[in-house]
Amino acid sequence: MAGELLDNKGRGDVSWSWPPIHPEGRKYGLIAVAVSLLFIFLDWEIVGWPLLALSAGVFAFFRDPERVVPQADDAIVAPADGLVSLIAQVAPPPELIGDDASGSRGLSPEPVTRISIFMSVFDVHINRAPIAGTIQRLVYIPGKFMNADLDKASEENERQHILIERPDGMQIGFTQIAGLVARRIVPFVKPGDIVAVGQRVGLIRFGSRVDVYLPAGTDAQVLLGQKIIAGETILARVGQQQLLEGLAQ
């Protein structure tokens, strides 16, 4: 049940259920179903039945499952489902650095750890807040639609930057990046909104990437090539630095 407190002592009550479809995707699924049924009605079954199967895929793409969100104060949770495709020390995007026209305090220009999460068309594409706090910035940048798995996609693709600040002043910046198939980034929040950790903040349609810029002095707690889950996987713990190694097998 959404909002129910669950813990590692076995307290709480859970059961499996089909994940709901986000309202943003229902219209696309229904359009696909209507078109496929039209072809079947016109005896173009060779087109209609494959389209009907495709419509099921459209509904599946927009699935919006509940997630059990860690509540530890030092935890930074994954904002996206997908594969950890890049981990690097880089400077944050210019749009998230320094004060903006509204007087919002931005990130430092010094290099920090960036974790890139690649979302395939088979992943859940609802993005979630990595920390609780106030949306300080939401900056949309038009651009290209090259492969989101490429490093230069962070600077050249269509993207949207989000900056969240906790009550204690700690900030996290992350970027939603469109890819080869993704053609629209849909925000659910606006500057000034207060969000909880793990709260839904946006959606990228049909395959894409999210970059997360960790605070200074904080290393990734995930490994390159690791599969992670939005709102559940802990990407990092604030102020913790250590080398982690994994074996692909």
UniProtKB/TrEMBL annotation:
<comment type="pathway">
    <text>Phospholipid metabolism; phosphatidylethanolamine biosynthesis; phosphatidylethanolamine from CDP-diacylglycerol: step 2/2.</text>
</comment>
<dbReference type="GO" id="GO:0006646">
    <property type="term" value="P:phosphatidylethanolamine biosynthetic process"/>
</dbReference>
<keyword id="KW-0456">Lyase</keyword>
<keyword id="KW-1003">Cell membrane</keyword>
<feature type="active site" description="Schiff-base intermediate with substrate; via pyruvic acid">
    <location>
        <position position="208"/>
    </location>
</feature>
<protein>
    <recommendedName>
        <fullName>Phosphatidylserine decarboxylase proenzyme</fullName>
        <ecNumber>4.1.1.65</ecNumber>
    </recommendedName>
</protein>
<keyword id="KW-0472">Membrane</keyword>
<comment type="subunit">
    <text>Heterodimer of a large membrane-associated beta subunit and a small pyruvoyl-containing alpha subunit.</text>
</comment>
<keyword id="KW-1208">Phospholipid metabolism</keyword>
<comment type="function">
    <text>Catalyzes the formation of phosphatidylethanolamine (PtdEtn) from phosphatidylserine (PtdSer).</text>
</comment>
<comment type="similarity">
    <text>Belongs to the phosphatidylserine decarboxylase family. PSD-A subfamily.</text>
</comment>
<feature type="transmembrane region" description="Helical">
    <location>
        <begin position="28"/>
        <end position="61"/>
    </location>
</feature>
<keyword id="KW-0444">Lipid biosynthesis</keyword>
<dbReference type="GO" id="GO:0005886">
    <property type="term" value="C:plasma membrane"/>
</dbReference>
<dbReference type="Pfam" id="PF02666">
    <property type="entry name" value="PS_Dcarbxylase"/>
</dbReference>
<keyword id="KW-1133">Transmembrane helix</keyword>
<keyword id="KW-0812">Transmembrane</keyword>
<keyword id="KW-0594">Phospholipid biosynthesis</keyword>
<keyword id="KW-0865">Zymogen</keyword>
<dbReference type="InterPro" id="IPR003817">
    <property type="entry name" value="PS_Dcarbxylase"/>
</dbReference>
<dbReference type="GO" id="GO:0004609">
    <property type="term" value="F:phosphatidylserine decarboxylase activity"/>
</dbReference>
<keyword id="KW-0670">Pyruvate</keyword>
<keyword id="KW-0210">Decarboxylase</keyword>
<feature type="modified residue" description="Pyruvic acid (Ser); by autocatalysis">
    <location>
        <position position="208"/>
    </location>
</feature>
<feature type="site" description="Cleavage (non-hydrolytic); by autocatalysis">
    <location>
        <begin position="207"/>
        <end position="208"/>
    </location>
</feature>
<dbReference type="InterPro" id="IPR033175">
    <property type="entry name" value="PSD-A"/>
</dbReference>
<keyword id="KW-0443">Lipid metabolism</keyword>
